[in-house]
Design goal:
The protein is of the alpha/beta class and about 350 residues long. It has helices spanning about 5-10, 15-35, 40-50, 60-75, 85-90, 115-125, 140, 165-185, 190-195, 200-205, 210, 230-240, 265-270, 275-280, 300-310, 330-335, and strands spanning about 55-60, 80-85, 100-105, 130-135, 145-150, 220-225, 240-245, 255-260, 290, 315-320, 325-330. The protein has 2 domains: about 5-185, Glucose-6-phosphate isomerase like protein, domain 1 (Rossmann fold, 3-Layer(aba) Sandwich), CATH 3.40.50.10490; about 210-335, Roll (CBS-domain). The longest helix is centred in the first third of the chain and has 23 residues, at about 15-35.
Length: about 350
């Protein structure tokens, strides 16, 4: 049930804030239900996918800030977009508009004068107009090629005046449209990374397993016939917390991975072992190692390796080629050092 203004007066600050969030969530849910099967959504996506120029987003006041954010979202998902300030536009900046562009106009009332002047110009130069509005019978809606329903029952303040629910719904609708366009264009994570080369996001999208894995002499690896004592010694020497077990030799000289032993496996075996220490040290590791361990290819994203290690709750991940040959080892510390975890 949506909170009434009277109820808001009796609530604490935290209760009022929670009520606002619930109200905005309810408005979002209502819009989401209304647009299912709406042909306008399909038409809007089609026009933006086919756009050969730029997506021009415009809005006045609070809707202007929403339009700015939407322009940034489209750009980051591979669709060139700019924010066109309504006032500046009608005083000369309309020269940036070309016949290859698509105009996205935002106005809750649908009667914002400056926005309507830009729409009028767009019509004269045959630029398609997509409207985001809370009034489907407004002047903006009537003069647009596609109208997206951003109607809300009320704003979040007691007097239903401050742009809150309406801007939230419009912003979310813009996000939804951008993601739909992104999926329709087949935009990939690799392409996304091109526009986000800096910071943690860039690392997650650009860093490959091959960039951070250990290789060659750094890898603790031994034949599966290795003795328990030698396995214990190698794990201690390499300081990777594990030992990769292999057998045979592939055509490229690499050995095929058959299992892994962790220092935890060795400790548990020592705790439960029967017989003398000497016999155990001289014995094999067949009862200790884990067969068919989780692996990853060196061309995979390091972020994918991190997700796999978190899901399996492991700290070491063998890196193998298409034939199962050992080509590297990835440790959780390497990903932490790279800034991914």
């Amino acid at each position: 049930m949506k909170p009434s203004p009277a109820n808001l007066e009796k609530q604490t600050a935290s209760q009022q804030m929670a009520a606002v969030l619930k109200l905005e969530s309810a408005e979002l849910a209502a819009v989401a239900s209304r647009i299912v099967g709406d042909a306008s959504c399909e038409s809007a996506v089609e026009k933006l996918v086919r756009c050969r120029g730029r997506i021009l987003l415009t809005g006045m006041g609070k809707m202007g800030f929403v339009a700015r954010k939407a322009a940034a979202t489209f750009c980051s998902t591979g669709a060139p977009a700019i924010y066109l300030h309504p006032t500046e536009a009608i005083h000369g900046d309309l020269g940036i508009v070309t016949a290859d562009d698509v105009l996205v106009a935002m106005s809750n009332s649908g009667e914002t004068n400056e926005v309507l002047k830009i729409v009028e110009y767009a019509q004269r130069v045959d630029v398609p107009v997509i409207a985001f509005t809370g009034d489907l019978s407004s002047t903006l809606a009537v003069h647009s090629d596609v109208v997206l329903d951003c109607c809300v029952q009320r704003e979040a303040d007691e007097c239903s005046l401050a742009p809150t629910c309406s801007t939230t719904v419009t912003l979310a609708m813009a996000d939804a449209l951008a993601i739909a366009v992104m999926k329709e264009r087949g935009f990939t994570a690799e392409q996304f990374a091109i526009f986000h080369p800096g910071g943690t996001l860039g690392k997650k999208l650009l860093l490959k397993v091959d960039d951070v894995m250990h290789r060659g002499a750094e890898i603790p690896v031994a034949d599966r016939a290795v003795s328990f004592g030698d396995a214990l010694k190698m794990i201690g020497q390499k300081k990777m917390g594990c030992l990769l077990l292999t057998e045979g030799e592939l055509t490229d000289g690499e050995q095929r991975l058959v299992g892994i032993i962790t220092d935890g496996d060795l400790r548990r075996h020592l705790e439960n072992a029967s017989g003398s220490i000497g016999e155990m040290m001289a014995g094999g590791v067949e009862e200790v190692f884990s067969a068919s361990p989780a692996t990853i290819g060196k061309d995979k994203l390091a972020a994918e390796a991190l997700r796999l290690m978190e899901d399996r709750q492991i700290t070491s991940l063998p890196v193998v080629d298409a034939d199962g040959g050992v080509c590297g080892l990835l440790h959780l510390h390497d990903l932490i050092k790279a800034g991914l975890a």
